[in-house]
Write a structure and sequence with these properties.
Helix 4 links the parallel strand 9 and strand 10. The protein has two domains: 148 residues, Alpha-Beta Complex (Quinone Oxidoreductase, Chain A, domain 1); 149 residues, NAD(P)-binding Rossmann-like Domain (Rossmann fold), CATH 3.40.50.720. By secondary structure, the chain is an alpha/beta fold. It has nine helices and 15 strands. The radius of gyration is 20 Å and the shape is globular. The strands form three sheets. Strands 3, 4, 5, 6, 7, 14 and 15 form a seven-stranded mixed beta sheet that branches. Helix 2 packs across helix 3 and helix 2 packs across helix 8. The longest helix has 13 residues. The structure holds NADP nicotinamide-adenine-dinucleotide phosphate (NAP). The site of NADP nicotinamide-adenine-dinucleotide phosphate has 28 residues, from helix 2 and helix 3.
Amino acid sequence: MPHSRQIHLTRRPQGLPVHDDFALVDAVVPDAGDGEMLVQALIMSVDPYMRPRLDADQALGEPLLGGGIGRIVQSRHPDFTVGDLVRHGSGFREMFVSDGKGLTKLHPDPELPLTVYMHALGGTGLTAYGGLLETGALKEGEQVFVSTAAGAVGSVAAQIAKIKDCYVVGSTGSAEKAAWLRDEVGLDAVIDYKAAPLAEALAAATPNGIDVYFENVGGAHLDAALPRMNVRGRVPVCGTISSYNGTPQAVYGLFNLIYKRVRMEGFVATDFAPLSGAFMRDMTGWLKDGRIKYQETVLDGFERAPEGLIGLFEGRNIGKMLIRISD
Ligand code: NAP
């Protein structure tokens, strides 16, 4: 029987998770039975949403919840063949037996690297696409602000806004990320919020106000954006990462929503399933013609998943944070 490892949560983190909150556990995986298959994990995603789940939804002593791309290495399932690539949400396990529930076959475009299906052509890309175009109701030529603009979701949202001929300001937390956004991605203005006072920098970078603030951070970022919002502006709330480790994040400027008639609305990626066809067509084209650029921060080794998750909250990733397990 094949051998495998799993990442378990061993205790609830207090604030920012630490390595001792997790354990690497050996597991024996049975062979695939009738109607089952054995899946080998190739690449896995670590995502900010995993952190709030560690406080309650994630069971202790069980594989960490998460997903990625895997390959079928044994199949006794009529619909799957050895060698098929699948998307899965089966948690942090190097190998696992599946009856096919929750697996989706992946037919990657041979002209694109497989890893893009983990970000621009995956959940974070769809989040950016639907959050900006549907929830944010973006119109051509508008004034846009995107926080965590060098991250997986933010970098795609910022570039879709550029494709729609908008004036786009991005915020990020390092000089290296700011340089990429300015020099390669071509945003109109970039704020390194760790190097300059955010509210002043945002006011200077948005002389015509903000029609759409694509919110990824919360707290001080939201407070900096609210006074800059234009009448009938929209704030699609994708995430509030600054609050995920339990640090209270005060927001003082909500009154700006009133006179400016601003609409603030949260969403989850799965809301945009009906857009999947248009999204895959548009994004594949934009990636191929270079209108969407991307970065990846790839950690080699299954055991590095906790390091990757913690790193998201320390700003260690540029573009999508990925864990590479096998080729
Ligand atoms: P990401 O932006 O690729 O990675 C996280 C980044 O957040 C870090 O690199 C860091 O970038 C920034 N960050 C971390 N702590 C911060 C803090 N305290 N204040 C300000 N910035 C901080 O991650 P992602 O997957 O693209 O997710 C971005 C946001 O989208 C998150 O809020 C996430 O929860 C949300 N999201 C929502 C959905 C949905 O369905 N609604 C789906 C996916 C993601 P800097 O160095 O630039 O600070």
